[in-house]
Amino acid sequence: ARLVVLVSGSGTNLQALLDAIGDDPEGFGARIVAVGADRNGIAGLERARAAGIPTFVCTVKDHATREEWDRALTGATAAYEPDLVVSAGFMKIVGKDFLARFGGRFVNTHPALLPSFPGAHGVRDALAYGVKVTGCTVHFVDDGVDTGPIIAQGVVEVRNEDDEAALHERIKEVERQLLVEVVGRLARNGYRIEGRKVHVGE
Ligand code: GRF
């Protein structure tokens, strides 16, 4: 499968995919054909370049409207003809053009146990709420925010001494493994989505 990965930050989830694919994309079942971002100057883009992978950047403020940005992001992604698009810390909500084109083959990873704590501050919100366990969720993206059909989740304990950074780091250790496992299975075994249920490789 051809993957396009979208990033906005450090790109450690991207790096986990790069490391898992290594020099055996056939074995993994997928290769990353491009990495897209919504901003320049992030480590995620450096990681792609270090791996010799083409990159593209679509910055919201470079476009007159959000819809035009969405169209640009859709076109830039479509140019690489991906089978699957992976949002790995991509911090923008895509619009209707992107979903029309990639809905059903666009997955996101979120650092909380959805439907708890959706949005851009899932780790902070879980910590503030005082939950004893949190975790991460890999799901298909739909037209809501972090509301699409869930593929897999991983549980992470919250410790009394945790601050947001420490907890997020512990979540990311689980999240990176979960994302690699899910993307590999989707790519190798195929899948179908029935309502809110995802059947992988059946
Ligand atoms: C991940 O925890 C992702 O779920 C969240 O932001 C983090 C991105 O980390 N949205 P990285 O850029 O993959 O290191």
UniProtKB/TrEMBL annotation:
Its GO CC terms are: cytosol
Q: Which GO terms describe its molecular function?
A: phosphoribosylglycinamide formyltransferase activity
Which positions does the site annotation Raises pKa of active site His cover?
A: 146
UniProt-recorded name of the protein: Phosphoribosylglycinamide formyltransferase
* Xref: InterPro entries: Formyl_transf_N, Formyl_transf_N_sf, GART, GART_AS
| This protein's UniProt keywords | Purine biosynthesis, Transferase
For this chain, the family text in UniProt reads: Belongs to the GART family.
